[in-house]
Design brief:
By secondary structure, the protein is mostly helical. The protein is built from nine helices and two strands, in the order αααβαααβααα. It starts with a helix and ends with a helix.
């Protein structure tokens, strides 16, 4: 991972997190729950455990990574599980694994508070799987839950941008989505996942509007 890509990844994830944090602080009324009081992010914790366990085990049993990573040629030969299994292992070593798990803990818990646990999981996996499909063309071999993280982060940036007309929030959200756009232009799978997260957020916001929630 070069320095420029690291900057884009950081902007896409953590500026979205900053925007979403301000959204929850300033307008709790946009939460789908009936109370603004923070609740334990159960879905995020379960997802984090499901990813962390094989991600840690792969360092002791390297065949785990080889068996579950994204590999287009092996997918074509019948390894159908490689469409989703790359989300549960990591190809970035110890540092990349820590970065991906910490990022998931942050954006996942925030997205769960904004949307709800079920919607958070849907955003993560739909964006993650489509990111893996894009990866077959752009980055045929790899692994990591970061694509799902980007889908969640983009959804946070979108709802923050549309629901809170507060200058710092707009700035952070625009920067995050701008970084996503550059990644997509560079044919990076995280950009594809972010686009899917954006579409899902717009759909959920529309559902809120139809139900009179926003």
């Amino acid at each position: 991972m070069n320095g420029f890509m690291t900057i884009l990844y950081t902007l896409g994830l953590f500026f979205a997190f900053a925007a979403g944090s301000m959204l929850l602080q300033r307008q709790a009324a946009f939460l789908q729950s009936t109370t603004a009081k923070p609740t334990f992010p159960r879905a995020t914790v379960l997802l984090l455990l499901a990813i962390a366990i094989p991600s840690i085990l792969q360092f002791f049993f390297p065949t785990i990574l080889l068996t579950f990573q994204r590999d287009y040629e092996r997918f074509r030969m019948g390894d159908w599980w490689r469409l989703i299994s790359p989300l549960f292992v990591q190809d970035g070593g110890v540092i990349g694994t820590i970065f991906n798990l910490v990022s998931l803990a942050l954006v996942g818990s925030l997205a769960e508070r904004i949307w709800n646990g079920r919607s958070m999981l849907i955003i993560f996996f739909v964006g993650g799987v489509i990111g893996e499909i894009a990866g077959f063309a752009w980055q045929p071999v790899g692994a990591g839950n970061s694509v799902g993280n980007f889908s969640l982060a983009a959804s946070i940036a979108v709802v923050s941008l549309m629901r809170l007309p507060f200058t710092p929030v707009i700035l952070f959200a625009v920067i995050a989505l701008g970084a996503d756009g550059v990644l997509l232009w560079l044919q990076d799978i995280h950009g594809a996942a972010a686009l899917v997260g954006t579409i899902q957020a717009l759909f959920l916001i529309r559902v809120w509007h139809d139900k009179g929630l926003g």
